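User: Can you recover a sequence for this backbone? Please restate the input before giving your answer.

Assistant: Of course. Working from this structure:
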């Protein structure tokens, strides 16, 4: 099935707003609807890639709450929280651990216009001791009700939209936006337009073919590789 022009335009306009320097790292989230809701929020905010560590490496399935957002937000899985944090720090992210402990600070006190990763804890236990020690800052969202905490996907949404708000209001905008460009843009554009061809290229260690201005693949590929978007 060829890529329809309207679909190509939609993909390009969404990709134009994808952000590479704002992300979420989840630690041992177990409930499919929570992971699904977090990825849906990531898609809405424009997060290019989310990160996760799963208990016993068991990945919860996505459910209808995700509304297909798992196709548009890459989820990178890490072996453990220490490695995940180290890898994000090496990429220049400042890590904000979310927890309800006394030494945590009000999330509104920080500037999230630089490379920012919010670290979210498990539904039952919250953030592990190890993660709490390794993050750069501990933050909390003030609660005024009878219940002590928010649902983890709701807390993720509050933080991600705050980061987006700050970036859009920054005098440094659009430089502060963290939008993607160059090679990463073209790579992601191809993967979104032709996920199956992209998988085939990866399996065969081939570079992705070029696209023309209408989003059609310029190169002649084997007949067995049908173009699907
Ligand atoms: N009993 C757990 C605890 O003491 O941390 C509650 C975990 S809460 C249901 C799950 C996760 O949601 C937390 O680890 C945190 O990432 C996030 N969260 C929930 N409410 C929050 C709040 N008010 N401020 C910051 N993060 C919150």
């Amino acid at each position: 099935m060829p890529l329809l022009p309207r679909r190509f335009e939609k993909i390009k306009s969404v990709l134009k707003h994808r952000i590479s320097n704002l992300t979420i790292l989840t630690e041992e989230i177990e409930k499919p609807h929570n992971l699904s809701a977090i990825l849906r929020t990531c898609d809405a905010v424009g997060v290019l890639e989310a990160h996760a560590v799963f208990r016993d490496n068991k990945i919860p399935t996505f459910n209808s709450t995700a509304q297909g957002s798992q196709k548009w937000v890459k989820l990178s899985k890490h072996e453990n929280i220490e490695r995940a944090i180290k890898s994000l720090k090496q990429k220049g992210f400042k890590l904000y651990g979310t927890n309800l402990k006394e030494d945590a600070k009000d999330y509104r006190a920080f500037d999230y216009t630089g490379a920012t990763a919010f670290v979210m804890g498990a539904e039952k236990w919250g953030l592990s001791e190890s993660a709490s020690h390794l993050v750069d800052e501990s933050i909390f969202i003030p609660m005024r009700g009878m219940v002590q905490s928010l649902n983890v996907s709701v807390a993720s949404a509050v933080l991600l939209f705050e980061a987006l708000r700050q970036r859009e209001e920054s005098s440094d905008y659009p430089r502060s936006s963290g939008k993607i460009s160059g090679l990463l843009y073209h790579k992601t554009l191809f993967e979104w337009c032709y996920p199956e061809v992209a998988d085939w290229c990866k399996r065969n260690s081939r570079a992705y073919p070029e696209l023309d201005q209408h989003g059609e693949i310029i190169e002649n590929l084997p007949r067995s590789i049908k173009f699907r978007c």
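That completes the design. Residues 1-18+180-229 form one domain.
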